[in-house]
Structure prediction request, 927 residues.
Amino acid sequence: MDQTRRALCVQHLDIQFSTPHGMARAVQEVSFDIHAGEIYALVGESGCGKTSAAHAVMGLINRINAPGHRIGGRVLFEDKDLLSLTEEEMCHVRGRSLGMIFQNPLDALNPLYRAGYQVYEAIVLDKIGKIEAWRRVAELFNQVKLSDPEARMRSYPQELSGGMRQRVMIGMMLARNPRLLIADEPTTALDVTIQAQVLELILALRAALEMSVWLITHDFGIVAEIADRVAVMYAGVLVEEADVLGIFDNPRHPYTRMLMASLPRGFKRDGRLRTIAGLLPDPTLEIPGCRFRDRCPAKIEVCATQAPALVEITPGHRVACHVAATVKGDLPP
Amino acid sequence: MNDLTAYAIRRIFQSVFIVLAVTILLFAIMHMMPGDPIQLIDSPRLDEATTAKLRARWGLDKPPVVQYLYWLLNVLKGDLGRSITNGQSVSVLLAARLPATLHITLTALLLQYLVAVPLGLMAGYHQGSVFDRLAVSVTSVLRAIPYFWLGILLIIVFAVSFRLLPVSGYRGFQSLILPVLTLTLPALADTLRLTRSEVLEVLREKHVTTAVAKGLRPQMVLLRHVLRNALVPVTVMFFLSVPWLIGGSVIVETIFAWPGTGRLLWKAISAQDYPVVQGIILLITLLTVISTTIGDILTGLLDPRIRAELGGRVA
Amino acid sequence: MTSIWKALREAGRNKSFLVGLAIMASLIAAALLADWISPYTYDEMVIVEALRPPSGQHWLGTDHLGRDSFSRLIHGSRIALKVGAIAVTIQTVVGVLLGLLAGYYGGWQDRVIIFLTDVIWALPPIVLAIAICTLLGPSLTNVIIAIAAVSWAQFTRIVRSKTQALKNMPYVEAARAMGESDLSIILRYILPNVIPVIIVLATLALPVAVVNTTALGFLGLGAQPPLPDWGVILSESMTYIRRAPWISIFPGLAIIYVVLGFNLLGEGLRDALDPRLKV
Ligand SMILES: Nc1ncnc2c1ncn2[C@@H]1O[C@H](COP(=O)(O)OP(=O)(O)OP(=O)(O)O)[C@@H](O)[C@H]1O
Ligand SMILES: [Mg+2]
Prediction:
């Protein structure tokens, strides 16, 4: 694997939504790279801005689903800044070289069209003949291990189980061999047994298609199992980033440590993040200092005034915390 | 037999029952009316004996149930009786008047759909734009205007003030404009608003995001995934709105002296010509039930979710 | 019931609701104070003053019999509101009772009632109202009967489906298991929960009733001259539409005022009480 080639480069991504209570900053100055061929996991509790970041990269935040939003920063992908592309240009990127599967497969397919057609619709965008395209649909349905693909192609989404729908989604997004697949909590809505199958599928396809995967999850179990590198996000900011061994062996940010501590031992399959005490700060408020301060057991004076920058403490391990260097061993109770 | 066919058959049976119930109602009402058809003929040549013979011949000496069956049988054969005022066959009268009514109602319906749906789609897609705000305020006013007054207003503006269009009668294309506008504008406003709100709703559904994410162009997303889904309730409402349109046509035909069934109904009421009234109401019932039945079946045809649900209910 | 008050307070922050409320208040005031507001009585004829355009003396002009249009219009609001309110009350009571019955008991009661609503809907409302008025003869009482008769079914259908949903709530099933009588369950658990919907439906039914009243009056099947029903005024004005179009204009504007007002009020209430209700 060529570790130096970058599949995606996110720089200072900043997302604000307009709410009745003012502008809410869902993502703040987030920067990270995804290397070619790797599985990059983004972890964080509900509402911290993971989906928003992914949608911004895909250009899916628009005036209809988020009137009055503002997006800043740069997203470099295949030598282009996705954020500055026109809608027309973006249509050539989406689906073709950048695929995304969504958090909830249950209503991510149009209930009025057959599953096969919805995949077909993506394939024919590549000026492929009808018969050839349908053949490819069947092949994809096979590839994502849908049993009885012919019948599944003729099914409407509501006739399929959650796992089957997610497989259809995966097939649809892989139809055009994207370079990068964004998988937004691909298994959260699924049964435990189905979760494992879907993950294996993603792993297998990654290898077969030589693509990179940006995996969004709040399940550390999944991270341990399949991710190459991990970033932890808290309230719209990246607080820590390292390779998967670095995170589990030597978590540096107090938030990461708390997340780990709250995990059931042995990272069981359903090892979701247990909620930790306290709430996310109000995203409409401008907060001086560290955003995690209120919930932080290790806070010091400077945390109240100065926001910590994301700095590299060891090669490949970045942390945004004033005390990260001093805190070693167990956390204070 | 698939789900939808089963449902369609059941729904059609149900409609037949509804129409039958209306015929019973109509017959009962006519029966309660003072005098029977023979008395109403009111000719000096009729003596007691002839009257009795005629009664027997028409089955009027039989119990009401038998009379109803006779009447129903005649109706099924297309015999709706004769007008009291001029003795003409009611079916012939209706057949002569129906084309004029269909002429304005169908034109109005077509306009309603063809104009309202694209405008509603545009207003919804560009929510908050100048066009959208204009569409919303104009339709709000249109929906509040009673159609009979809208007719009067159009007469004042176009026919009296500017003398552009004929005020009444059935003379070519120009005479069609005002009655059709009167009929179509309020319905058009309703359809536009429904399309707009359905489009707004569908636009917020997750599958639209999926459609964008897989690389479809905005126009394709809008037509295939937004409009297509929004059209289900819009099309159904379209068929369910036919009764209102027919009701409106009764008044519009009266205002514009349009020689259709509505105006005939109005004249028959004034002349207390009950057989004609009965015939027209039967006709209107039939048109209404047919269109609502089509609407219901069409929902299933357009939406596989409803199809499955309907089929489930039958099984 | 407290939740209704809370919702109403919320509706009070809604601009269109407040506009609707103001319009309703002005209409009720006009109807109650008609005798004081209007400069003339509604049937005072001064033939020499016939068909005068609006002026300082006759704000909205006069009709073909020299009657003051403004006074007739104001008095007309009395008829519109009275007929509308009584008809809506009747259709609400009938519709809600049948809806509760069908929804709560299900079975044959449900099937019979639903069939009745289907039969009612087999005819366009205005046509059915015309038929009923023809049968019963033209009078305001018969207009009320006709309008109520054609409009109860919507209440029945919506109350029925709400009742069906409520009937299976755990607390209602618990009450039934405790041996509470059907009547008491309906009154204590079901009715209070359908009241918000009923309020919205009734508010939105009123403008429909007013339009139908005037339509029947217009066709000569409702109020009879010299009563200043807006529909009657409109039908009388048709003959003079070239010479005195203003007689036709104002009653229409009055109807629009009523319809807009109550629609705003009803939609405001719906948004506050039951936003998902599709009416
Ligand atoms: N269209 C929008 N308009 C306004 N606010 C939004 C919008 N989309 C997201 N937000 C807000 O942005 C913040 C981040 O949401 P986001 O969905 O990105 O979180 P997430 O990390 O994906 O959470 P989850 O784990 O629940 O999926 C939340 O506070 C959310 O309320
Ligand atoms: Mg999310």
About this structure: DSSP finds ten helices and twelve strands in chain A. The first strand of chain A starts at residue 6 and ends at 19.
